[in-house]
Amino acid sequence: MAATILVTGASGNVGAEVVKRLLAGGLPVRAADRKPARLRERFGDALEVVEFDFMRPETYTAAFAGIERMFLMRPPQLTNVKKYIVPALDAARQAGVRHVVFLSLIGIENNQQVPHYAVEQYLVASPLSYTFLRASFFMQNLNTTHRDEIRERSELYVPVGKGKTSFIDARDIAAVGALALSQPGHENKAYDLTGSEALDYYAVAAIFSEVLGRPITYRNPSALGFLWRQVRGGVSLPFAVVMTWLYNSTRKGMAAQVTDEVQRLLGRAPISLRQYVIDYQDVWR
Asked: FRET label pair with 70: which of 20, 104, 142, 182, CA 20 to 30 Å apart?
């Protein structure tokens, strides 16, 4: 029987899809989350569920026991990699983990101040083998982080000007992640994952308008205006600053890269933004 695969962040946009993919492939999965109850609600008894918290080393032993391969998702609120992520990865290696598939960020070589870079550097220097999923902007951020502004105010409120983004569906990221976790040949590889087109937010708003049947407006605020709205809406200042910085990078064209990695690895075209909006349209109605 195949060894159990650990998926951290299993309740997140990508982690949950990785779990689904692995289960569909008949592979044993251990899903990890700070609140195991929400995983049981989502997946029932289809898989093993374990409590895991990077900030609580006492949760490491049960999570890593018997694991050789794991999917790593850095919680967005944890920016101190040395303090929280490295000890967990050290514990994983000591417990017998050999391969880590890490959800990283496209263009990381030019963004060395973001936490993803420090995680990548640790893994490269460690005895662990790795696969880096360097993903572009998730489409699913539009039905989570930006859900209310689209649903309640019929607007997209992001400070990127006319900058284009090569949006990728989390389901495509997860499909590549599941491939790297279940098949050999992906060790010590880095994949730049994007959709098949780069769109500005005027085009994104037009797609939403057509699918939802009502006007969705792209507001294009200033970076300061965006930061202020996020903090006023309850987002922590450090996370709001990271979001603003990433969108500023988009404004400068750093999110416009389009690659063929999804097509090459999965043998099919990436899910389009239009198809994503169709699939998730009830979220914004």
From this structure: 142
